[in-house]
Amino acid sequence: MVAVRTSIDQIERLRKSGYRIVGRHSAVKICHWTKNVLRGGKHCYKSWYGVQSHRCLQMTPSLQYCNMMCIFCWRFHTINRVTVYEGEWDRPEEIFDKLILEQRQLLSGFKGNPAVDKKLFKDALEPNNVAISLDGEPTLYPYLAELIKIAHKNGMTTFLVTNGTTPRKLEELIEKDAQPTNLYISLYGPDYATHVRTCRPLISDSWTRLMESLKLMPSFGKSRKMIRLTLVKEYNMRDPEKYAELIRNAKPDYVECKAYMHVGESQKRLPKEAMPSMNDIIDFSEKLSLLIGYKIISHDNASRVSLLANESSPYYSLDYNRIFR
After folding, report:
1. Three-state DSSP class for 305?
2. Which of 10, 57, 213, 259 could form a disulfide with 164 if both were Cys (CB 3.0 to 4.6 A apart)?
3. What is the CA radius of gyration of the chain?
4. Is residue 3 part of a domain?
5. 170 near 219, Cβ under 8 Å?
């Protein structure tokens, strides 16, 4: 597949959607939950893992570069939703400080808002977590290990979300002592056929690679490990016993069963009826819990997600909020 650079029109479209481009292929965007906390609302469900939404830097080092076109994705699927970047990649030290500066610029409009707590606003200007999850597949970025190490050197935690199709890159994170604080591997189908139909991969061996990454997951001894199931009705919200087999191989600390949300660009591809209710998620989580022996320890109704915990994990505690903090 031929790689294409992001066009000026596409960049403008992204900017209008709240993205700020840094360098040639990185971006930052203020998420809904950051704004929500600043206005006195709740944190997102990632607070389960100690993430403060208003201090979270949501970014990507691989804007638009992904090897899947998932049916439920809320991002733009443009002509250069491809697996190869044709130019020279920016080094982490060239983009890291600029990402924080762009974050502050995006937050500047909240300063004069009377509904915004001044202390929260001041804290937000000093992010303490990097969520490497905004757009694209971050493991396509060749300097991912160096980016994570820079974040840790600056006293920040890291939250890496990957589709698991680059197991060699995950091995590199271990080899270079760059394990993220939190490692998410997304599992979007219980079998090959469902995976292909739901993820619409742009590479022929995506399922094989994902299986390799799941087997590698237990080797991340310095990361809190999660498997994310984004569940879509009539697509992949079925066969919990098949999911259970894959999860047992990966041995994550936590499993999230999350509803597909009918937002963004996904509205052009899926009907609203494809979005599970919270009751649907709870029902599926209970079935999965029995199959894998994990305990359901929390729900988040706003995001329609249930959290299942491995009681044998070193991160597990009945007082899990204390551990996460």
Report:
1. strand
2. 213
3. 19
4. no
5. no
**Domain range enclosing 316:** 8-324
SS3 313: coil
How many CA within 13 A on the CB side of residue 59?
Answer: 33
The CA distance from 236 to 104, in Å, is 38
Q: Is residue 83 part of a domain?
A: yes
- Residue 264 covered by a domain: yes
On whether the pTM is more than 0.85, the answer is yes
Asked, for residue 169, whether it belongs to a domain, the answer is yes
- What's the pLDDT tens digit per position in 118-173? 899 898 899 999 999 888 899 999 999 999 999 999 999 999 999 999 999 999 99
The CATH number covering residue 245 comes to: 3.20.20.70
| List of residues 6+ apart from 99 with CB closer than 8 A | 22, 26, 28, 57, 59
Give per-residue burial for 268-297: e unless 16+ CB within 10 Å, then b.
eebeeebbbebebbbbbbeebbebbebebb
Q: Which residues contact 155 (CB under 8 A, 6 or more apart)?
A: 128
**Which DSSP state fits 272?**
G
Q: How many domains does the chain have?
A: 1
**Which residue is associated with the tokens 């974050």?**
103
Question: CA 247, CA 53: separation in Å to the nearest integer?
Answer: 28
